[in-house]
Amino acid sequence: MQLPSPRGPLSAAVFGALTGGRDLDLSDCSAAVDSCSRCPLEDEDLQIALWSLYELHYGGFDDVDDAYEWSPPLLMARQCLERPFESTLRDHTRGWVREICDSSGPVPQRLFGFVEGIASPPLARYLQHTATSSQLLEFLIHRSIYQLKEADPHSWAIPRLTGAAKVALVEVQYDEYGAGRPDALHSKMYADTLAACGLRTGYGAYIEAVPAVTLAVNNAMSLFGLHRRLRGAVVGHLAAFEATSSIPARRVSHGLRRLHYPEPAAAYYDEHVEADAVHEQLVIRHICARLIEDDPSALSSVAFGLASCLLLDNRAAEQMLGAWARGASSSTGRAHFAGGGRMTAVLGLRPQAEICRLSNVTYVLPIKTVAGTDHDDLTQYLTMLSALLTIVVVDGSAPDVFTRNQTQWRPIAEHVRPRSKTPNGKVAGVCDGVAAARTPFVVVADDDVRYDETSLRAVIDLLRRHDAVVPQNYFCPMAWHTYWDSARTLLNRAFGSDFAGTTAVRRDAFIVTHGYCGAVLFENLELIRTLTANGFDVHRAPDVFVARRPPTFRQFADQRLRQAYDSMSQPGRLCVELGVLPMAAFGLLRARRLLVAAGVTSMAAAELGRRRHGGRRVFSPSVAAWAPLWVVERGVFSWLALGCFLRGGVRYAGARFRKAAHPTWKLAGSQCPEPCCRCRISLRTRQSDRTASW
Fold first, then answer.
1. How far is the C-alpha of 444 from the C-alpha of 455, rounded, in Å?
2. When comparing pLDDT for 380 and 318, which is higher?
């Protein structure tokens, strides 16, 4: 992890000292703290500086010498920042601490009763029932600052406790650290949740995107853990943390499933539903109570830690809910200062100031939309991408829609009309977009494709060794019908490779082919075959996963016949698919066990596809169970597709297509494979009516 960007003069001075650039003037540091008019809990500058100084005692930074961990000037600077932070926490929790200390009854009863009596913002309930996908991802990002080092701050208390309290804390931490199983390490499980949701998993990956209040939540734990005088506060904090986690974990798990994220995304929260219910009893009854029993004066310190946890968690929840109620982002840390926008954090990119720009890559988006289409998600995605590379949007929409799109996208992309004309309009958009690109590498993608920085860089790295790269798409988030469609993807992976809605290609290779035929339905396969026919190396990358947004159910239903018609370009596959219906009829009449065996075989094949090339990272185990349903669907629609072929082709976007894709042997050279070309593509020069330009 690299040192984050400063958020003001205080953090700039601290970071300058950490990188060895200049000496730290403690008097200036103290003066800056004293002159600050903002509440320390909301001071971006103070909180990021304090977080970075605390981080020296955890994993550290790649660009900071480990020797600085115990540097006296830096320890003094940390103390300078801690004073107003701790003082503010005490001021805000004084009434709560007094209430706990003045109440009567056994310590566990007093602590449980206080936690239950504090009203908390309904963040977990909102995530369960109402939150959008972007909001849920933002929540995960906020939580990642702690959860990716879960349990570490509270472990500082172990050498500072004795007797039964120490034994109980070690028991709790043993569970947190996986109970001897590395894959059950809670921080690892949270990283798996992030990965399943398409987010980055590196510790501190989103530190630039979180606001001061999120940093304060984490800094309080380190403050309590690193000071022996606050050992009561650190176990009190742990008590509140565990006592308020079980039910919210269940709600967040339900929210992830409501938004149809892959099943592995919810595993972390499922684990904490039961684990935290047990841990809260251990922490309050066997750690806090035993500590206070041994040292009655520790009650006020335990109460301070418990109250601080509730205060900061409530403030963080209020900040998120307040931002979402205004239709804004809750990620108002460095992402805000850098102008990166909220999706910079949500979709996994570093803020613009930290991005190593892909100056040799152009992203081409061919699109045609109708009035009333909501482009907010796409606009946010393009805004995020614009920090990385050049974008060309080739928009074939009607004039009024084009003008509206231009207003949205012109600041972040080159927005142009298509010059070429093809029956399949996407081909015209791709050819004109590649022609407009001025970079050696081009990424072509449908409007539902959502790269993150990791997958984008992985594709470009492969493109340095190949002429074209086809990654693996997966749906994120999931809708019920995308489980059905994902079964097709897994079967494709089991018996070969899948076809993605995006291809990365070297521009010079594409120019050599002068484009590809736009009189076909399966234009992605046509492009791949055209490049192959002209001697270029097309590399399939089934282990590079690129998210795509799910279609609506209506779009999904409309795709059934067209996807079956695509098999017209793959005769061997078509024969197998045409054989499904007769085999099913035979099984119903003569051998029903055969049907059961066929269903089990299809599920096993789908599961094989899920396990190949790391597919388990993005495909839920339940997807394989949908394979028999998809096989039956394809068996029916393959016959309907054959009927359409005999009647002259299938209709799509106002045109009729007889050809799904041309065989590879017909695509070499610059001549159109169609007897009478219906395409006008700007990359070619018209020669004759028979061998026309595209």
1. 14
2. 318
Cα-based distances in Å from 683 to 311, 365, 515, 530: 63, 18, 6, 14
* DSSP classification of residue 545: E
Structure tokens, 275: 């684990």
Please provide residue 366's backbone torsions phi and psi, each rounded to the nearest 5 degrees: -85, 135
372 burial via Cβ count (<10 Å: 0-12, 13-18, 19+)? exposed
3-state secondary structure of 441: strand
Q: Please state the pTM of the whole predicted model.
A: 0.56
Question: pLDDT tens digits for 466-503?
Answer: 999 999 999 988 888 999 999 999 999 999 889 899 99
Identify the band that residue 35 occupies on the pLDDT scale cut at 50, 70 and 90.
Answer: low
Quick: pLDDT tens for 326-369.
Answer: 878 887 644 433 333 334 444 444 443 333 467 889 999 999 98
Q: How many residues does the chain have?
A: 694
Question: DSSP 3-state assignment of 693?
Answer: coil
Rounded alpha-carbon distances, angstroms, from residue 1 to 59, 611, 690: 8, 31, 60
Nearest to 525 by CA among 501, 553, 552: 501
* Bond before 477 cis per omega within 30 degrees: yes
Q: What is the pLDDT of residue 3?
A: 92
Helix (H, G, I), strand (E, B) or coil at 539: strand
Give just the sign of the alpha carbon dihedral 67, 79, 308, 282. positive
| Residue 180 backbone zone (phi > 0: left; psi -120 to 50: alpha; other: beta) | left
Tracing tokens 């108002």 back to the chain, one arrives at 332
Say which residue the tokens 């065989």 belong to: 663
Give per-residue pLDDT as tens, 266-276. 899 998 887 77
Phi, psi of 421 (to 5 degrees): -135, 125
| Residues 125-147: b if buried by 16+ CB within 10 A, e if exposed | bbbbeebebbbbbbbbbbbbbbb
pLDDT of residue 684: 66
What six digits make up the tokens of 213? 């209040």
Element (H, E) at 443: strand 441-445
Calculate the average pLDDT of the chain: 87
Question: Which pair of structure tokens corresponds to residue 32?
Answer: 């800056």
232 touches 29 (CB < 8 A)? no
The predicted model gives 448-474 an average pLDDT of 91
C-alpha gyration radius of the chain: 29
Percent of the chain with pLDDT over 90: 56
Strands 538-548 and 468-475: parallel
Greater confidence (672 vs 512) lies with 512
- Rounded CA-CA distance 624/46 in Å is 50
Question: Which residue(s) pair with 470 in the sheet?
Answer: 540
Average of pLDDT values for 621-639?
A: 94
Asked if residues 337 and 48 have their Cβ atoms less than 8 Å apart, the reply is no
For tokens 């907010």, the residue is: 376
Tell me which residue of 432, 367, 423, 374 sits closest to 396, measured CA to CA.
Answer: 367
Q: Three-state DSSP class for 270?
A: helix
Supply the DSSP string of 491-507, one letter for each residue.
HHHHHS----SEEEEEH
